[in-house]
Amino acid sequence: xxxxxxxxxxxxxxxxxxxxxxxxxxxxxxxxxxxxxxxxxxxxxxxxxxxxxxxxxxxxxxxxxxxxxxxxxxxxxxxxxxxxxxxxxxxxxxxxxxxxxxxxxxxxxxxx
Length: 112
Known about the structure:
single chain; about 110 residues; alpha+beta; two-stranded antiparallel sheet; two-stranded antiparallel ribbon; 3 helices; elongated
């Protein structure tokens, strides 16, 4: 038993042989991703899209009437993400009574 403890606790004074590291195989370059995420919201320019800007301004002015509103960023819901969410929800409710969580929506990148 003492021989075991001596081996574990004391380092050997003999030099270990140096083993050269084998070369790594070359991996063919692949595209970075076959799938790209679909954003839930799309950023739009408030100056070009007047209707969403007016809606945001009217919502903001109802709470504080004597304030100035400057829209730097304006986001609208992505219709593609909405459609996928509705389809996934209807399929999940038809299949099982369990709960589900959609963490991300991705679409395949065309390889042209």
